[in-house]
From TrEMBL:
Name assigned to this protein: Glycerophosphodiester phosphodiesterase
Cleavable signal peptide: none
Source taxon at top rank: Bacteria
Gene3D superfamilies: Phosphatidylinositol (PI) phosphodiesterase (3.20.20.190)
Molecular functions (GO terms): phosphoric diester hydrolase activity
Alphabetized SUPFAM superfamilies for the sequence: PLC-like phosphodiesterases (SSF51695)
InterPro entries: GP_PDE_dom (IPR030395), PLC-like_Pdiesterase_TIM-brl (IPR017946)
Residues covered by the GP-PDE domain: 8-245
Amino acid sequence: MSSTIKRPLVIGHRGAAGEAPENTLASFRLALAQGADGLELDVHLSNDGEIVVCHDATLDRTTDGSGRIGELRLEEIRRCDAGAWFHESFRGERVPVLAEVLELTPPGVLLNIEVKDAEGSAGAIIDPLLERVNRQGRLRDVVFSSFDHKCMRELKRREPTARIGLLYAANLADHAGYAALLGVAVHSLHPDYRLIGRDDVAAAVAAGLCVYPYTVNRIEALRDMIACGVTGIITDFPARLAALLDG
């Protein structure tokens, strides 16, 4: 790696989703063991107000259960096996709640919490999400992100010290300029890696923004993003990226 390029953070996408069942404690543990500097995870609000860590709005794809998270109580969600679908060795893994992930992750490790918008209900999660993060004293480690930029703006207004990031898959003419339009301070951009280039990254960094492209897995793509000078790389294979950076 050129000495002129700052080493990007290794951010495990849903933990180490390429090698363990996504968004489980086993996946997050593996990412940390593989040298991840940060963890990316997704959250939904259960019917009884718990912050549940899962990508999809339903349990169908990543557990042996079914149903919409927003219509289920945590007790019902916990009955589901969230590991066996990936490999028999992960049988017994459960869908975690945010508090468990916060407890697992050492202070100082970046936590990129993606707020999922389950049919327009993302706003309902803001207060309980902030309460849980603040209760465990982890606000300084967290970057909240979402494809729902109105939700991010509202979260920032309710907690001005929170760091927010914008997820998007658009070939923007001016990435930094778009962030400025939000009307609140944006910490980071989280673009589809295929839709951002070296000049875009340079302009964003010059504007004081961090750039965390997603989800970069192929060696060639990882090398391209490193060369672009991004702040961090979200990947399903943290060990692969760490080895590339250390090689």
